[in-house]
Amino acid sequence: MRKILTVALAGVLAATMLFAGCSKKEEAAIPEKIIVGTNAEFPPFEYVDDNKKIDGFDIAMMKEIAKRMDVKIEIKNMEFKSLIGSLESKTINAVAAGMTKDPERMEAVDFSDSYYTSSQVMIVKKDSKLKKMTELKGKKVGVQEGTTGDKLATGENFGEKQKPVVKGVDVRRFPKGVNAVMDLKNGGVDAVVIDEKPAMEFVKNNKGLKIVRDKAAEEYYCIALPKGNEKLVKEINKQLKAMKEDGTLDKLKAKYIDK
Ligand code: ARG
C-alpha cells in the first residue's frame, strides 16, 4: 500500500514539475508586458497629441491587442532608425510604427500579418511640374532617415515589386518627416518622398504644398517582433485576425485614418 502511494505521489510530483516547466516557457514566449517602440512623428499612425500623449492608429491597435491578450503595455518613443536595433537588444519587444515589412528588416526581426496597405508619394510645392518618381533624378529629395521612402529615393529595391526604381537622386536625410517637409517649404529640397497618409496630414497642415502620386509599389505595414518567437507572432496574428473579423480594426481606421 505504502509503495503504491509513493509511486502515485512521485507521479503527481513529476506531472507538477512538467506542468510548471511548461508554463514557465509559455511566460517567456508571451511577455507580461508588451513594450512597444514607435516613432511618434508619423500621423495618423502615431503622433504626440495636444496633451503630450502618444496616440494614433498604431497605438490604439496595440492597446487593444494587449487588452485582448490580458497583458500590460508600455509605449516607448524613439527615432525611427533605432527601432529595429532596440528590438534586437530587447529594450522593446514590439514595434508599431507604420513599419513596412521588407526583406532587409526580415533578416533582423519577424513581422506579424499586415494590418495596413500603403505606398510612397511625393510632396512638392504647388507650382512644381514634377509628375513621375523617375523625374527626381538629379533633384534634392528629403526623406525620413531609414524609412522605405529613404530606400526608394536612394535607388534601393526594397519590395519584391518595387517600382519605379529611382536613380541619381541627391538624398537629404532628416530625423523626422516633418523636418523634410519644413525644408521643402523653406526652399531646401525639391520634393519629399514619404508614405501616403502622413503626406496627406503634412499637406493639410502646411499651405502651398501638394501631393503627387506615381505608381509606387504597395507596402504592407506590420508589427515587428523579436526574431524567432513563433508563439508571440502567432498570438499577435490571432488577435489581429479577430480584430479584422469583428470590425474593430475598421472602426479604428475610421476613427484615426479616414476621418
Ligand atoms: N513605412 C515606412 C517604413 O517602414 C515609414 C514608416 C515611418 N514610421 C514612423 N513612425 N516614423 O520605412
Automatic annotation (TrEMBL):
Superkingdom field: Bacteria
Organism: Anaerostipes caccae (strain DSM 14662 / CCUG 47493 / JCM 13470 / NCIMB 13811 / L1-92)
Signal sequence residues: 1-20
Gene Ontology terms: cellular component: membrane
Signal among keywords: yes
Domain Solute-binding protein family 3/N-terminal: start-end pairs: 33-259
Entry keywords, A to Z: Signal
Protein name in the entry: ABC transporter, substrate-binding protein, family 3
GO molecular function: ligand-gated monoatomic ion channel activity
Keyword Signal: yes
